[in-house]
From TrEMBL:
Belongs to the TonB-dependent receptor family. Residues 1-19 form the signal peptide. Transmembrane segments: none annotated. Keywords: Cell outer membrane, Membrane, Signal, Transmembrane, Transmembrane beta strand, Transport. GO terms for cellular component: cell outer membrane. This is TonB-linked outer membrane protein, SusC/RagA family. Residues 133-240 form the TonB-dependent receptor plug domain.
Length: 1057
């Protein structure tokens, strides 16, 4: 102590003398300064976790001051403080913050508890926070530390499989695509089932994960049961995702860089027929036509065995480079805390001329104005661009997609010298465009211009005022401004702008501006009553206003394509749509939390919502909820169970709603005719006609949910288990109800349906090994959900759903039946292939189907050996619509994830597995590329599997002959098991030791190597089992021409200064 005092005095005296010799520098050594210097105290210590392992990088702050230090690689720290008085605050990511009073001691050895293993960490809930141990509702928390190790562009990509009951899926693997998130099953049949996002306390139904930098996320909580979501009323039925971003912290400025770069590559290609098998197939299809093309000049079929041909998939797929960079500055004082950050993401797509880019910046300031008043502002801006050919777009013709050409474009010509021409030509010169216009896939990908630009500005602010002791007012205001611009330009070398297209060079422009204004005002009263009672009362009202304005125009026959989008004005204007939609929401809310010694916990909430989307008589809806929790381990009769650390039973019940109908849905829409509809005085006039029939009795879809859960902790918190059972019932579903013909319309929206969801969720977190050098912990979750239709329109027996797709536009691949899931696959039962034994041979050598053998929907005289065969379910000898039935179920039996974290010294390894089990997929790609329609698909290549088709020499029962596909029925032949187990993320990291950091004058430096989608185990024959290219509640699990999901290998760097 004497040494430090003398040293400080010497420094102060030297500084004063040195300053005296330099003009403008004054330093006065008064008695007060000298006394403070002499009284300074140095304290030290070591910080460890529950396992006894040291914790490097722990922040230690003297409460009420700006003095901050940090532990070194050995967990040790030294801290100079003015006097032995006050409180030390120890904080570390993933651990519970701990406050330690300063006594007369100068050594402070502290143990921190992991927030993943204890119940004392704080959890964000609707309009507030609470200790995890005091939760009464079902809330799932994402492990942000694990998620950050996944090299992905958005947090929703990393969320899949992380939280029980949260199903994350995508249409395909295209960069920048928004993901579909469903919490505890689909509640609605025709409306949006996406959860409500609440970002830093501001709810929005329009949130885009693409606008948020994953590195800026502090926590993600998912509110799942009604007792937790009812506080959000009309928007809480589908669950609520609470995203809290990082804020400034008290202490010296801290600069953090986090970045990764790597390569994305295709996991598998779809194998197609070789040149030999392709020519063999063509000769079977049309011997007269293709003999002249492929067997000219003395060539034989055998000559094609060694022809390499063109692999179009090799030409459109590429190794795509991706990189992500984030830079942040955080710091603050007791009064002012700040955070400034920026990020850049550039993802090349694995298909040429496709990708996604994002530029994002963020500023957060929190200011303590005085002891009763605090204010803050949070500003986030993101600019994104998604570009490239849309692979799985909803087209009525299968030939409109890129993968159709990539798989189907013929690999050879009849003359090897002309194969280079096949690569250079826009379309196959031997193919008539009137039959099947098939464009060169490379030219299509290179020339189609379809960027989608999104610019989003979010400004949120708050004001907290402590009115009196225990009573506070919080006023928040938010503005979200989104501008979406979509440009399309089809030049003369593109699929839709080539010379054979009637519109020639054409293009379109569409601009959408969405303005979302929000104001929320809440009063909170909290008090503790003698005897262990605690009470918190929340009340308030909110107002939200949304405007969606869009305009655009389309132009055809553009004369000068070199001008690009600028030249649209020179073409012929076709349409110029304009829309202006508005909606408002006014809400009143309240919640009461009662806590008795964390042993008995009660939560009661109520919300009333009024939405402009509904007619006056049904504009308001009311959403009550209640929950009770009992910590039974605090009861005297549980004291003998030493292995059980904590146990809590939760029961919840509540009402939530879904207001996601379109604006003005209750009104009849009118449309002006494009052509003159009447004449007055020989002057033509355009009439106005109704487009749909409004319904002035529309009301909310309402979900009633009950939940029973239990939280357990065993063996000194080495095992933590959470289990929930839930049942929810949604009534007043909005369905397109059939109307009487006299109404003039076939259908209109009515509140007529009912569905239910029931399920079980289980989450288990374990500390498997706790050691100084080596540790291993795991997290496992699994969820079962059973979805059921309870009622349809006017007790209709079923609801059929159609997918617009090729020759199958009139077929219905999905059915909803009361007592069964919302969507099941619907079609014919595949019964193999007609064999010679099914026919009588006529004297002229022709084959006639035996009278006791059912047909396949085609006239009996047209059926030949090798044609497809369906089961005659009605046993009437005829195949028709009465033989249609359920052929598969796209709903999984269970989904889940399993994460493991290993640490050895300065190395760490994360291995994460995700799965889905029991769901089927309709592989529509096989319908087209295992036989297709040869009458209109000349030169179309097939999947390699079609080489095993039925022929007189190969009388298989699995695949029909060339031309034997039969009528346009979906069948069980292309229904496949979509179950999969995916090695989703593997990340290996190394943290440089503190001795190196000290020499580099850095706080920490971590290097990592990560892989995403490394291995997938599945029986599915398509590119990827995680696909749904026509995704909706009624049409899940449909696979047609998807953008392949890539495998990613990246290297990363995290540096703190």
């Amino acid at each position: 102590m004497k040494f430090y005092s003398v040293f400080i005095c010497s420094v102060l005296i030297f500084s004063s003398v040195h300053g005296a010799n330099h003009p403008g520098q004054n330093f006065t050594l008064n008695k007060k300064t000298l006394r403070a210097a002499l009284s300074a105290v140095s304290i030290s210590g070591v910080v460890k976790d529950n396992n006894g392992d040291v914790l490097p990088g722990v922040s230690i702050r003297l409460k009420g001051s700006n003095s901050v230090t940090q532990t070194n690689s050995n967990g040790a720290f030294k801290f100079s403080i003015p006097e032995l008085k006050g409180t030390l605050v120890f904080s570390y990511t993933g651990f519970v913050t701990k406050e330690v009073p300063i006594t007369t001691a100068i050594v402070y050895n502290v143990k921190l508890e992991s927030s993943t293993n204890v119940l004392d960490d704080v959890v964000v809930v609707g309009y507030g926070t609470t200790a995890r141990k005091d939760l009464t509702g079902s809330i799932g928390s994402a492990n942000i530390k694990d998620m950050s190790k996944a090299p992905v562009g958005t947090f929703t990509e990393a969320l899949a499989g992380r939280i029980a009951g949260v199903q994350v899926s995508s249409t395909d693997g295209q960069p920048g695509n928004e993901l579909n998130i469903v919490v505890r099953g689909n509640n609605s049949v025709t409306q949006d089932n996406a959860p409500l996002y609440v970002i830093d306390g501001f709810p929005t139904e329009l949130a885009s994960a693409n606008t948020i930098n994953s590195e800026e996320i502090e926590s993600i909580e998912v509110l799942k049961d009604a007792s937790a979501t009812a506080i959000y009323g009309a928007r809480g039925a589908n669950g609520v995702i609470l995203v809290t971003t990082k804020k400034g912290k008290i202490g010296a400025p801290q600069i953090t860089y986090d970045g990764w770069a790597g390569v994305n590559s295709i996991i598998k290609q779809q194998e197609v027929l070789s040149p030999y098998e392709f020519v063999k197939y063509q000769l079977e299809q049309n011997p007269d036509l293709y003999t002249d093309i492929y067997l000219k000049n003395g060539q034989t079929l055998e000559d094609y065995r060694n022809r390499k041909g063109i692999n179009w998939q090799d030409l459109i797929f590429r190794d795509a480079y991706t990189h992500n960079h984030s830079l942040s500055l955080r710091g603050g004082t007791e009064k002012t805390k700040y955070a400034i950050s920026g990020s850049l993401l550039n993802q090349q797509g694995i298909i040429i001329n496709s990708g996604f880019r994002r530029y994002q910046g963020r500023v957060v300031v929190d200011q303590t104005i005085n002891k009763n008043l605090k204010a803050g502002v949070n500003l986030n801006y993101a600019a994104t661009k998604k570009f490239g050919t849309v692979v799985a777009e909803s087209q009525t013709s299968p030939t409109a997609s890129l993968m159709y050409s990539a798989w189907g474009y013929r690999p050879i010509t009849g003359d090897i010298d002309f194969e280079d021409n096949l690569m250079e030509e826009l379309y196959d010169p031997d193919l008539s465009p009137t039959a099947d216009f098939r464009i060169n896939p490379v030219k299509a990908a290179q020339n189609e211009y379809k960027p989608n630009f999104n610019n989003t500005l979010v400004i949120n602010s708050y004001l907290d005022y402590q009115i009196v002791k225990n009573l506070s007012l919080r006023v928040t205001g938010g503005l979200t401004k989104t501008n979406i611009r979509q440009e399309i330009f089809n030049n003369s070398m593109s699929r839709l702008g080539n010379p054979n297209n009637n519109n020639k060079v054409n293009g379109s422009f569409n601009n959408t501006e969405i303005t979302n204004l929000l104001n929320e005002n809440t009063l909170t009263y909290s008090t503790k009553i003698k005897g262990g009672h605690a009470l918190k009362i929340l009340g308030g009202f909110t107002m939200q206003d949304v405007r969606n304005y869009s305009n655009g125009f389309s132009s055809i026959l553009i004369p000068n394509e070199s001008l690009g989008m600028v030249g649209l004005a020179e073409g012929q204007l076709t349409v110029a749509p304009v829309s202006d939609l508005k909606n408002g929401l006014l809400s009143y809310l309240g919640r009461v939390d009662y806590n008795y010694k964390s042993k008995y916990l009660v939560t009661v909430s109520f919300r009333s919502d009024g939405s402009s989307r509904f007619p006056m008589e049904n504009r308001w809806a009311y959403f009550p909820s209640g929950a009770f929790a009992w910590r039974f381990t605090d009861e005297p009769f549980m004291k003998g169970l030493d292995f059980l650390d904590d146990g809590k039973l939760r029961i919840g019940y509540g009402h939530t709603g879904n207001n996601r109908v379109s604006d003005y849905a209750s009104l009849t829409a009118l449309k002006m005719l494009a052509m003159s509809g009447y004449s007055t005085g020989n002057i033509p006039g355009k009439g106005i006609v109704p487009v749909n029939l409004g319904n002035t009795k529309l009301k909310w879809e309402t979900t009633v949910q009950s939940n029973v859960g239990i939280d357990l902790s065993f063996f000194k918190k080495r095992i933590a288990l959470t289990a929930d059972y839930y049942h929810k019932k949604t009534h007043d579903l909005l369905l397109n109800a059939t109307l009487a013909p006299s109404m003039g319309f076939l259908s209109a929206f009515k509140n007529v349906g009912k569905v239910s969801n029931s399920g079980v969720e289980l989450t288990v977190n374990t500390d498997n090994i706790r050691g100084n050098k080596f540790s291993w912990n795991s997290s496992f979750n699994i969820a079962f959900n059973r979805n059921k239709v309870l009622a349809l329109n006017d007790d209709e027996p079923s609801l059929l759903s159609r997918v617009t797709w090729g020759n199958f536009n009139t077929a219905f691949p999905y059915i909803a039946v009361p007592g069964k899931p919302i969507a099941q696959f619907y079609g014919m039962q595949f019964d193999g292939v007609y064999q010679y034994s099914d026919f009588d041979v006529q004297p002229n050598g022709s084959y006639v189907l035996k009278s006791n053998i059912p047909n396949n929907g085609n006239p009996r005289a047209n059926i030949l050996p090798g044609d497809i065969k369906f089961k005659d379910l009605t046993q009437d000898g005829q195949i028709d619509d009465r033989d249609l039935g359920v052929i598969g179920d796209p709903n999984p039996v269970h989904i889940g994830g399993f994460s493991n974290n290993f640490r050895y010294g300065n190395f760490d390894l994360n291995v994460f597995l995700q799965w889905s089990y029991g769901n089927d997929i309709l592989n529509a790609n096989r319908i087209e590329f295992e036989g297709g329609d040869p009458t209109t698909r000349n030169f179309l290549n097939m999947f390699a599997s079609f080489a095993n088709r039925w022929t007189p020499e190969n009388q298989t029962n699995e695949l029909y002959r060339v031309g034997g596909q039969g009528p346009a029925y979906y069948s069980s032949r292309t229904i496949e098991d979509g179950s999969f187990l995916r090695l989703k993320t593997v990340s290996l990291g190394y943290n440089l030791p503190s001795s190196v950091m000290k020499s580099l004058k850095m706080k920490s430096l971590r290097f990592s190597v990560s892989a995403q989608n490394l291995i997938t185990w599945t029986k599915y024959s398509g590119l990827d089992p995680e696909v749904s290219t026509r995704h909706s509640a009624l049409t899940p699990g449909f696979d047609w021409s998807p953008y392949p999901r890539p495998r990613s290998i990246t290297v990363g760097l995290n540096a703190n200064f």
